[in-house]
Amino acid sequence: MNAEVAVWLFWKMEGFVGLLSYSVSKVLLLSGLSRKDNVQKAKKMEEKVLEVYDAIRTIRDPEKPNTLEELEVVSENCIEMKEIAEDEYLIIIRFTPTAPHCSLATLIGLCLQVKLQRCLPFKYKLEIYISQGSHSTEEDTRNVYSVKSTIQK
């Protein structure tokens, strides 16, 4: 093989590799698999979780002078966020009542719902549940404690 043919083959291969690289990056970008996009999306979701947590952590317990955060009824870990559309989110909160026989669990769920309705500036759908295994009547009242709302804002 002479030098001209080798240069021509190299030039063609370089063009092919460049085109392939460009195509792969576009596919990753469009499919949402781009690392940069995933990092930005994860950071945005983390900020939204913190925004929700900041709103609910200061709610006072109906029977005690403490906040839900101080009593460990809510924590950052009890909040799950999913993006359901552009700038619309599903917020899932699983709170833990202070006692397995807490008679005010429903009231706590309603307090969470009202606080978020008043504080959150973005569109969301809300689901509130009692943490599994944390309440004596959990199975009997799962639907009572579960608050599913429509898109707010």
Task: Explain what you see.
By secondary structure, the protein is of the alpha+beta class. Helices cover 48% and strands 16% of the residues. It has helices spanning 3-31, 35-56, 105-119, 138-145, and strands spanning 79-85, 88-95, 123-130, 147-148. A four-stranded mixed beta sheet has the order 1-2-3-4. It is elongated, with a radius of gyration of 25 Å. The termini are far apart.
Summarize the structure.
Helix content is 48%, strand content 16%.
Number of helices: 4
State the secondary-structure class: alpha+beta
Silhouette:
elongated
Biggest sheet: strands, sense, closure?
A: 4 strands, mixed
The order of strands across the largest sheet is: 1-2-3-4
Compute the separation of the termini in Å.
70 Å
How many β-strands, per DSSP?
4
As a percent range, the share of helical residues equals 40-55%
Quick tags:
single chain, 153 residues, alpha+beta, elongated
